Amino acid sequence: MTYDADTLAQLRKDADEILSRYPVKRSALLPLLHLVQSVDGYVSPDGISFCAEVVDLTSAEVSAVATFYTQYKRRPNGEYQVGVCTTALCATMGGDEIWRQLSDKCGVGHDETTADGKISLERIECNAACDYAPVMMVNWEFFDNMTPDRALRVVDDILEGRDVKPTRGPHKVSTFKETERVLAGFEDGKVDEDQGVGDPTLVGLKIAREQGWEEQR
Amino acid sequence: MTDLTPVLSATWDAEQSWKLSTYESHGGYRALKKALGMDKNDIVQAVKDSGLRGRGGAGFPTGMKWGFLPPDDGGPRYLVVNADESEPGTCKDIPTMLSAPQVLIEGVAITSYAIGCNHAFIYLRGEVTHVYRRLMQAVREAYAAGHLGKNIHGSGFDLDVTVHAGAGAYICGEETALLDSLEGRRGQPRLKPPFPAVAGLYARPTVVNNVESIASVPAIIDRGVEWFTSMGTERSKGMGLFSLSGHVERPGQYEAPLGITLRELLDMAGGVRGGKKLKFWTPGGSSTPIFTDEHLDTPLDYESVGSAGSMLGTRALQIFDETTCVVRVVTRWTEFYKHESCGKCTPCREGTFWLTQILKRIEGGQGTEADIQQLLDTCESILGRAFCALGDGATSCISSSIQYFREEFEQHIADAACPFDHSASALFDYDAPAKVTEEAHA
Ligand SMILES: Cc1cc2nc3c(=O)[nH]c(=O)nc-3n(C[C@H](O)[C@H](O)[C@H](O)COP(=O)(O)O)c2cc1C
Ligand code: SF4
Ligand code: FES
Q1: How many Å apart are CA B166 and CA B142, to the nearest integer?
Q2: Which residue from A minimizes the CA distance to B138?
Q3: Does A188 touch chain B (CB under 8 A)?
Q4: Domain boundaries in chain B?
Q5: CATH for B326-425, among 3.40.190.80, 3.40.50.2300, 1.20.1440.230, 3.90.180.10?
Q6: Is the model's pLDDT at A216 over the cut of 90?
Q7: pLDDT over threshold 60, residue B4
Q8: Which residues on adjacent β-strands are paired with residue B81?
Q9: What pLDDT was estimated at residue B435?
Q10: What angle separates helix B129-144 from helix B101-115, to the nearest 10 degrees?
Q11: Which among B91, B182, B423 is the nearest to A27, CB-wise?
C-alpha cells in the first residue's frame, strides 16, 4: 500500500467505525469499498489491499466482490458521475434523446470520462424515480423531469466549474468522493437540505385532502 | 368510485416531514409504546389477522412469514428490511424513506420486538444518496429519543439498527442474494430451502420484508386490525401505494385500498397525456406480464390481477400510450434483465443474452418470421428452469407482448423497420435525428 501515514490513519479510524456496525467482519466490505472510493475516486489496487487486510480476505476475494457491483469503478472516476436513465420507461419518455445529446456534448460514451476528469457519463438503469421520468442522476442525487436543454445546462455548469443543484436533494451536489463517503455511512450534515417535495410524490395526498377523504379515517 | 386512503403518505406534505419531531407530532411512536406493552405473540397474531401481504412483489402473508421462525434458541435472529427498490417502474419505497423515514424505523422496532430480534438491518440500494442521509438521521434521532438502543422505553427490549447501502445490482433485491450481499459477498441467490426464516443472515433465523410491508405495521398496531381489514378486497386487505408513471397527465403516488382499478386511478391522474389512447401498461413492474385497455377495470388486488394473467407485483403502473412501440419497450426491458442477470444459472444467463439479440434484430428491422417463435421458445426454456425469479420475470414482458401485439412484431419484420416515430413518445419536442441505432447497454 502506498497511502501516506495520515491517509492510512484516517482510513483505519473510519474502517473501525464501519466494522462496529456489524456483528460479522465481512459485512463491512461494501461500505469499505465505498470508503476507498471516497479517498481514491475508484477501487484502487491500494484500496483493495486495504479492504482485504481489514476484513481478513485475499485481494482476489475482494476484487471478485467489487467487480460484481456497478457503483464500484475500476478506473479513476470523474468528479461528477452523470447517469441518464435509459431503462424502458425513461428511455421512451425522452431518456434516449437526452443521452444522445449529452454524449455528443461531452464527447464520451457509456462508462467513459471527459479528458478534464470532470464528468463520467453512464447509462443507468431504473433509479426508482419513474414518476419523475425522464430521470438523470448526478453523484446519485435526483435530477427529475429532465429535458435535453436542462440536462445540457447541468453538464455545462459542471464543465465550467459551477455548482449544480438537484431536485429532491441537497442545495448542491457533492463531488464523487464526498458522495462516496456518505455511501460508506458517514453523515455530512446535509440531511435537512431540501428542494421541496415534488408534485408526483404528493399528487395522491393532495387529491385526498381536496376531496376530504382522509378526514374520514 | 374508490377513495384514496393516505396512511403512509399522510405526513409527506408536512414541514420537514422527515424529522422525528414532525413524525411524533402526527402520532408517531404511539404504536411502538402500545406494542411494547403487548405480548409478542399477540403482535404477530394481529399482523396475521390483518391479512397484510408482502408489498415487495410476491405478496406472501407477512404475519405468516414471521410465524415461520423457529422457537427461540437463545441465539440471535434478524430482521432485514429490503430497501433495494430496483424493479423497473417501482418508485414507492424511495419517496416513503425520503419523506417519512421514521414510519419505517417505528415499523422496524415493532417487528423486531415481535420476532425477538435485537439487531435489524435496512439494506438500501446505493444509488440514492439523499435517501441514505435521511435514513441515517432517522436512526440517529430514534436512538436519541430512546426508541432504539438499550432498554427501549423501560421495556427491557434492546434493539440496534444498521442502515447499509448497496452498490448497484438489481439482483440484490432478491432476498437471498440480498443476504449474501449484506454478508459482504457477490449478490447471488441462494438455494432454497433452507429458507431465510431458518437459515438467513449469518445462517441465523431471519425475516426479510419490504419497506412498505414494515412501514404498514405501526398503523395496524395503532388503529387495529378491523380498521385495516375495512380496506381492500376479500383476500387482499389494506391500502398500498400505487405508482403511476409514463404517459399520464399527473404521474405519482396514489395510496389507495387494494382493488382500485386503473380506470379509477387514471381518472384522478387526469387520464393518459394529451387525451391519447392507452396502449399497454404494467400492473406491477417490468417483471409482470403487460396489460392493455382490456384490463382498465380489473381490480388491482392479488387475485384479480392473477386471474387476468398478470401479477400485482409492486403496483408499479407504467403507462404507455398509442405512440409507443411495444417492441422497443420490451427490447429495452430485456436488455435490463441481461445486464442484471447474476450469471449463476445457464437458462437466465444465456437466455437473456439470446433474447436481447433476437429482439434487437427485430426492432432494428432485420428480424425474420422465425424469430418470433424463437423468442417464445427461448422464454419457455427459461420459465420454471431459472434458479431465481429474475429469469422468470425476464420472460413476462416478451410472452405477454407477443400475446397482445403479435402483429406489431410482424410489422417490424415485414417492413424491415420500426414503424414508429420515437420522438412522438417523448415528453418534450425534439427533431428526430436520422435513424440511429441506439447504443446497447454495457
Ligand atoms: C430479481 C428480484 C428482485 C427483487 N427486488 C426486490 C426489491 O427491490 N425490494 C423488495 O422488497 N423485494 C424485492 N424482491 C422480492 C424479495 O425477494 C422478497 O420477496 C421480498 O423482499 C419479501 O418482502 P415482503 O414479503 O415484505 O414483500 C425481488 C425479487 C426478485 C426475484
Ligand atoms: S435466474 Fe438469473 S439472476 Fe437468478 S440465479 Fe439465475 S442467472 Fe442469477
Ligand atoms: S425507468 Fe427511469 S427511473 Fe425508473
Answers
A1: 23
A2: A191
A3: yes
A4: 20-229, 239-321, 326-425
A5: 1.20.1440.230
A6: no
A7: yes
A8: B122, B209
A9: 55
A10: 60
A11: B182
Determine the average pLDDT of the residues in B395-408. 98
Q: What is the pLDDT of residues A13-31, one digit of tens each?
A: 999 999 999 999 999 999 9
The terminus-to-terminus CA distance of chain A in angstroms comes to: 61
Is pLDDT at B416 greater than 60 in this prediction? yes
CATH number at residue A132: 3.40.30.10
> Which one-letter DSSP state was computed for residue B92?
S
Q: Which CATH architecture describes the domain B20-229?
A: 3-Layer(aba) Sandwich (3.40)
Of ligand 1's listed atoms, the one at least distance from the Cα of B389 is 31
Query: Residue B41 to residues A203, B32, B37, B71: CA-CA distances in angstroms?
Result: 38, 15, 12, 12
Q: pLDDT class for B441, splitting at 50, 70, 90?
A: very low
Length reported for chain B: 442
Q: Taking 60 as the threshold, does the pLDDT of residue A215 lie above it?
A: no
Which residue, B295, B290, B287, B237, is CA-closest to B261? B295
Model ipTM value: 0.98
Mean pLDDT, residues B36-44: 98
pLDDT score at A214: 72
Q: In what order do the strands lie in the sheet with B252-257?
A: B252-257, B239-246, B316-321, B278-282, B291-292
pTM for the whole thing?
0.97
Residue A53: which domain range?
5-66
Q: Is A199 on the interface with B (CB under 8 A)?
A: yes
Residue type, B152: I
Among B82, B92, B345, the mutation site with the greatest number of ligand 1 atoms within 8 A of its Cβ is B82
CA distances (Å), origin B207, targets B34, B204, B362:
22, 10, 43
* Cα–Cα distance for residue pair B114/B65, rounded to 1 Å: 12
Q: At residue A77, does pLDDT exceed 60?
A: yes
